[in-house]
Amino acid sequence: MYTDNKKPVIALSIQNHGGEDRLFAQFPNDPILNELVRAIPGRRWSQTKKQWHFNLNRQVVELLVQKTAQVAKIDSALLNTQWKEKEKSEERANIEKKFEGKAESWASSGLQEKVKRDEETIQALDYFKLWMEQKRYSPQTIKNYMGQIIQFLTYYKARSYKELTVEDVERYNHEAIIKKELSVSFQQSMVGAIKLFYSQCQDTKMDLRKLQRPFNEHRLPQVLSKEEVQKIITATNNIKHKALLSLIYACGLRRGEVLNLKLKDLDSQRKLIRIAQAKGKKDRYVTFGTKLRTLLADYYRIHKPKIYLFEGQYGQQYGESSAAQVLNQVVKKVGIKKGVTLHTLRHSFATHLLEAGTDIRYIQELLGHNDPKTTMIYTHVSSKKLSEINSPFDDLEL
After folding, report:
1. Is this prediction's pTM over 0.70?
2. What domains can be seen in the chain, in order of their start residue?
3. Which residues carry out catalysis?
4. Rounded to a whole number, what is the distance in angstroms from the first to the last CA of the chain?
5. Is the confidence at residue 393, as pLDDT, over 50?
């Protein structure tokens, strides 16, 4: 039996392994410890890291402590720090997702239950939704704005919406958004929803002239290399999933654009795909190359969709969450560590076109951008252009 001073130390940490966060235990090679760890359910051995790893949950940590207490000391300092950061990050993501992706019921009875306020507020919210619908805002935008304005009003549930001021918006932004470290884009969307709602209200204390959005973040889009895109598409074995991801990258489509595609939108003769009523209520055409036509033809022969190009199990339009899950699984499978979303494929398409020498005006047309300034961001992420710049360090004689 070891004395306390001579007990080996088991250092616990969170490490990504095979695209999944796992609990790793590092300790000196010891036959007694190895035997004890082998008895823990779900343990696996990493040949590359030469460490045991387990499912990431607190019960496993408690079991490790119980099993090894007599022969080893547990060092969980790094694990505790990593776990706090992980939980904090997940909390931020869940809060944003709650208002950006969750479907809501906007019947008056549902609004009454959610905001628990007077009939005047219910009528204002109902009118706001009706106004957005007749202005032809997209269903997703309506859902997001309604969720955001109701969240704001619920925060001040003891007061009438007519009594709220710009100072109340600033206080809400600080307490409910900034303190929780939610993104600037989420805050901008929230302020936009509030401004739009109050622009349709009368006799309120909200001075819209003083209500300002936060400063824009100047973040460059995440971009994959061609080799990384190749890995993702090659590793996708399901032909429907491969066709979906390939189409997004091959044509630079938004998530909603690819899911809204109907069979009638594909014109093999003209080698064009029609993107109908996309963002900004605009139609546009994108190229329909030979490789993509061959892949989609193979997909069609197997799945035979009826109306939409990509359909669910029962013939309904394929879901956004399903499409995102497809990409997440294959990204983990190939071991790409970047934060990759379906929109990353669109960013990569534009960047790779630019690096190949395509005129920025054509890229703007293919992406469906109204403002060329939006497309110009890809000039800042093109590795080819950056790599052509010589550092003054190269001129030094060392």
Report:
1. no
2. 4-75 (3.30.780), 99-199 (1.10.150.130), 226-385 (1.10.443.10)
3. 254, 279, 343, 346, 369, 378
4. 59
5. no
